């Protein structure tokens, strides 16, 4: 495939010569609290206690409705008017709630205090509260804090803030190893571990771990590979601990997964040809499955509203492996360093729009009339009412989409709304 050998230098050069337009208007994105919905499934003995209003509680209840059949490991400590006015000592109430929670749920080993608003708004310094409660409940429970505030974070930045909070807790080690960073479904994590082992890369660890007591060690001989594109704060935290990032596209689709694995192999001195030989059967299966999907997706146009920071890698995958035509690729924030390899692989003439103004974006989408529009829940229903076929961007976070085995499933997420639209029109 063309561009399969793109390097970090190529991507950096592409960024330098192709400025990314940025808009600064009204946005339509979920806040970072929603990251809890997939993070609480990943770290199996962690609990997320949101300190916020009833609005935050209703948001989590709605966003997590798909989890209704399992007892969740998150809750909201609701702040009342007296708390927000600074007339009550919210720290005392928080201590009481945490004590009762840990008594009721003795399996909890890691407790996150998640701010729904900046400390100036909720009248609580959650970082200090976490330190205090950590001393009270140590060594049985580790207590950390991060912000999921919609004022300070967008949809996927909640995961970034959570993982960044874990990095200072990771033990130090001088041993070499690879750290794969980003919350992945367990089935994807297992597949990636097998592929990396087969290539000869390792030892391999994952952040976040499945259990709080399994935090991987880190040091100057640790190399890390991002599995998600929205982890800029976590990247900086890891680099402050001495770890070094391996530049790579993201493992979406057969091509993206191959380039991701080649980058890991190169860091271990393994030639690309050896990596390709090791993964050839897996890649061939993925390519065959994608070929079947491309018959319905080729030449279909697609428009991305900004929501998840997955937009650029998805546009690359859909254009290069399925023949779709990205008309506009809106993204809430573009980290040019982390996205350099992806930008280099975008088709000519496709430029992301950073922090897209929602009204201007809607005007352009209405003028372009794409075959498929990727957007958040707040825009999907109004656009469907106008005759647009839409794909909820939130589903791309809840679904296993990375790696060879999931490549066809990822394509199916985009094929399905087009097929539904055809049935409705028949």
CATH homology group of the domain at 8-27 and 282-425: Nitrogenase molybdenum iron protein domain
Biggest sheet features: 5 strands, parallel
Helix content: 40-55%
Shape: globular
The top-level CATH class of the domain at 8-27 and 282-425 is Alpha Beta
Give average pLDDT, whole number. Answer: 88
Distance between the termini: 37 Å
Order of strands, main sheet, comes to 11-10-9-12-13
Notes on the structure:
This protein is an alpha/beta fold and 426 residues long. Among the domains are: 8-27 and 282-425, Nitrogenase molybdenum iron protein domain (Rossmann fold); 32-153, Rossmann fold, CATH 3.40.50.1980. 46% of the residues lie in helices and 14% in strands. The chain has 18 helices and 13 strands. It has helices at residues 8-17, 36-42, 54-63, 81-84, 90-104, 119-122, 126-137, 157-166, 186-199, 232-240, 253-267, 272-297, 311-322, 340-345, 358-368, 377-385, 395-398, 407-425; strands at 46-52, 74-78, 110-115, 142-147, 177-181, 204-207, 222-226, 244-245, 301-304, 325-331, 352-354, 372-375, 390-392. Strands 11-10-9-12-13 form a five-stranded parallel β-sheet, sandwiched between helices. A four-stranded parallel β-sheet has the order 2-1-3-4, with helices on both faces. Strand 5 (177-181), helix 9 (186-199) and strand 6 form a beta-alpha-beta unit. Helix 8 packs parallel to helix 10 (232-240), helix 11 (253-267) packs antiparallel against helix 12 and helix 12 packs parallel to helix 18. The radius of gyration is 22 Å and the shape is globular.
């Amino acid at each position: 495939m063309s561009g399969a050998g793109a390097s970090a230098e190529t991507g950096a050069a592409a960024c330098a010569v192709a400025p990314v337009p940025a808009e600064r208007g009204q946005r339509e994105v979920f806040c970072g609290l929603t990251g809890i919905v997939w993070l609480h499934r990943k770290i199996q003995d962690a609990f997320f206690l949101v300190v916020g209003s009833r609005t935050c509680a209703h948001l989590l209840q709605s966003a997590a409705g798909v989890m209704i059949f399992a007892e969740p490991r998150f809750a909201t400590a609701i702040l009342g008017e007296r708390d927000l006015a600074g007339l009550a000592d919210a720290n005392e109430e928080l201590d009481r709630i945490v004590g009762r929670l840990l008594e009721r749920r003795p399996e909890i080993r890691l407790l996150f205090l998640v701010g729904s608003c900046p400390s100036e708004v909720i009248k609580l310094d959650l970082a200090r509260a976490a330190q205090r409660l950590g001393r009270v409940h140590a060594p049985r429970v580790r207590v950390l804090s991060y912000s999921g505030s919609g004022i300070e974070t967008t949809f996927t930045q909640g995961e970034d803030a959570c993982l960044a909070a874990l990095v200072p807790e990771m033990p130090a080690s001088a041993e070499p190893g690879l750290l794969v960073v980003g919350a992945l479904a367990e089935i994807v994590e297992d597949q990636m571990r097998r592929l990396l082992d087969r290539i000869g890369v390792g030892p391999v660890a994952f952040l976040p771990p499945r259990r709080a007591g399994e935090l991987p060690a880190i040091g100057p001989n640790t190399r890390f590979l991002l599995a998600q594109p929205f982890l800029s704060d976590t990247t900086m935290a890891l680099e402050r601990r001495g770890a070094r990032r391996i530049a790579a596209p993201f493992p979406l689709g057969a091509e993206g997964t191959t380039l991701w694995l080649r980058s890991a192999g190169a860091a271990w001195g393994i030639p690309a040809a050896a990596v390709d030989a090791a993964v050839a059967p897996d890649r061939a299966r993925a390519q065959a499955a994608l070929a079947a999907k491309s018959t319905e997706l080729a030449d279909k146009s697609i428009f991305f509203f900004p929501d998840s920071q997955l937009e650029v890698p998805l546009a690359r995958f859909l254009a290069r492996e399925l023949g779709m035509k990205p008309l506009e690729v809106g993204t809430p924030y573009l980290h040019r360093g982390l996205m350099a390899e992806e930008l280099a692989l975008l088709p000519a003439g496709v430029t992301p729009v950073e922090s897209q103004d929602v009204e201007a974006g809607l005007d352009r989408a209405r003028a372009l009339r794409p075959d498929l529009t990727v957007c958040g829940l707040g825009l999907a229903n109004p656009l469907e009412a106008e005759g647009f076929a839409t794909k909820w961007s939130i589903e791309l976070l809840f679904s296993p989409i990375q790696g060879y085995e999931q490549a066809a499933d990822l394509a199916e997420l985009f094929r399905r709304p087009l097929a539904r639209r055809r049935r409705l029109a028949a």
